[in-house]
Amino acid sequence: MANEKQNLTKRNLAIRIAEETGLTQQQVQAVIQKTLDSLLDALREGQTVEFRRFGVFDVRERRQRIGRNPHRPDQVVVIPSRKVVRFRPGKDMKALFK
Description:
By secondary structure, the chain is of the alpha+beta class. It has two domains: 9-46, no CATH class; 48-98, IHF-like DNA-binding proteins (HU Protein, Chain A), CATH 4.10.520. Helix content is 39%, strand content 33%. The radius of gyration is 20 Å and the shape is elongated.
């Protein structure tokens, strides 16, 4: 199981950055959390968040649509409109996954 991939968590990211920069894990975690909070605040206000060459986050309105209950296909269900966050990869990320 040494080949098993581990997810990158906020804690793992903080440890990695702390080791590379010499900052404490608490300092790095505070910066990461403030970054994420700022990103969420901007999206909540309807702003687009752009990280050049990495990608762009924005909020889109998903239109109301008609769905079907999978257990009762004859039953029509109205799925209300809602806002969703969209991510579009930037140049560097696209190049990684070609």
